[in-house]
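Suppose you are handed a protein chain with no further information: no name, no annotation, nothing but its sequence. What can you learn? This example shows the usual starting point.
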Amino acid sequence: MSFALGQLVPVFGGPAFGIVFGMVLSLVTRAQPIMRPGARIASHQLLQLSVVVLGFQLSLHDVVRTGVGSLPVMLGTLGLALLGAQLFGKLLRVNGDLRTLIGVGTGVCGASAIGAVTRVIGAAETEVAYSLSTIFAFNVLAVLLYPLLGHAMGMSQHTFGLWGGTAINDTSSVVAATATYGAAASSYGVIVKLTRALTIVPICAWLAVREARRSRTCPDPLGAQMPRWWQLVPWFIGYFLLATVANTVGLVPAGWHHDLSRIATFLITVALVGVGLSARFGEMRRSGLRPLALGGALWLTVGGSSLALQAIFHS
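A reasonable first move is to predict its three-dimensional structure. Written in structure tokens, the prediction is:
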């Protein structure tokens, strides 16, 4: 149904309808336990599969060029997100671990980054829940508002893809928002987002050293606290690159690209229904206003700075 509605109202898009439908269903059914395994498969495996399908429409040259070209904007927004988390967090009296989790969730890759950093700094379960609910709230806003704002500002596919890829928190929301805007924006945004996700490795290394220095109890901080780098990199990035190689060497007929694009959009829409079903409204209420205020400040900072940096670097 969400996919069909997206075809009727393309400016809103199937993924946006999907996440709203999933959230409404979660409220109505109170997220029955029997639905959770399916929602998890949809919001994780199907989303990752949709990214791999998108890879079959890209060339390896485009991936490398886009990834490298996005670095000034991507690193600039990442730095502002991490710095802003500390500054705004102190002003709002949000505790250290929670502001770190919200900062990396906003600056890197949402829930995946929060999960990786939690293993390094040993954050409490309540802090993880609060940071995830905060990131989720602004992911929903991004899916619903970014395409509308992009059209209102007359953004090109390239500009919107870079904006979405650097400014939207979670991979699912980047894929959903950029796919709604257009195929070219989706391709560009996904490459930028996956490049951005790789920064979690040096960030976790830095946090592990910082935690070890604070405790002074770990003779080998990286070996004891830092997960192996390959455990931090999402596995589907490798399959995405293999898909681009297959398309680059001509294993994917050009006539398949249109159908692959529709398949990817359908998978994204189903994945966003799963994301909506995974909403935990109770945790969002319990988190209070301060984490949400911090998340909102960072969301606005990263979104605005992404556009400013694009103008500065003519990206």
